[in-house]
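Section 3.1: Structural characterization of target chains.
Under the original work plan, the team committed to producing a structural model for every single-chain target entering the pipeline before any wet-lab resources were allocated. The record below documents one such target. The sequence was received from the expression subgroup and is listed exactly as submitted; it comprises 241 residues.
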Amino acid sequence: ADAQTAGRGRRGKAPWQSPPGGSIAMSVILRLSSVAPERLGRIAIAVAVAVGDAIGSATGLRTAVKWPNDIVTVSSGVDGTVRKVGGILIEPALGHDPDGTPVMRHAVVGIGINANVPVSRFGAMGQASLAPASLLSELGGPVSREDLIVEVLRGLDQVGAMCSDAGWIETRQRYEARLAWRGRAVVLGFPVEGSNADRPPVSGELVGIDGSGALVIRHQSGALHGFHDGEVRVRIADLEP
């Protein structure tokens, strides 16, 4: 789409807006029958790597990933401030084989990238959960949306292979190499809904991700815990040794 007026993000967050000619707002159907339903978490990880690589190839900008699906830049300061330049939303379509075996039909991959959006426009775009940025504001000049879309599509064409057992180890390593706040003390909060209504936040060191794509946090006790949901933020002071 050339413009967006009512986009949505994780857990139905809305509305997301983008002015005509300023952003990339695209949805792609990926046929991923080779990806088992229990490995759905791998898709978001692989897509995040593909989009980050595409931005780097098309513009030269090095981006990071704020788990699980935000494409960001990270400041070098102590506070580790992130600025969001893009986001990813995965909606899988599951089904069953004739024998009743669960299978992946396809996945709809929604990708939004703030390309040539001036900083002055962010206040009206409804993107307040993270400090917003654009490729324009980070690079100091406009980028070719067409070139970037081509690179994104090239990357998405590799997602099936990236999620396979043969490709997953490398995909996981590439994701962790750009994972924001890895090795830092973080706090993981949870949406106030359903079974999470009274769930307290979790603090610890952000270690990486596990084989399913879950975020791994090391508690001060040394125990490792994996999480499939939540909103991570960095703590100002690192944990005491």
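Confidence is low (pLDDT under 50) at residues 237-241.
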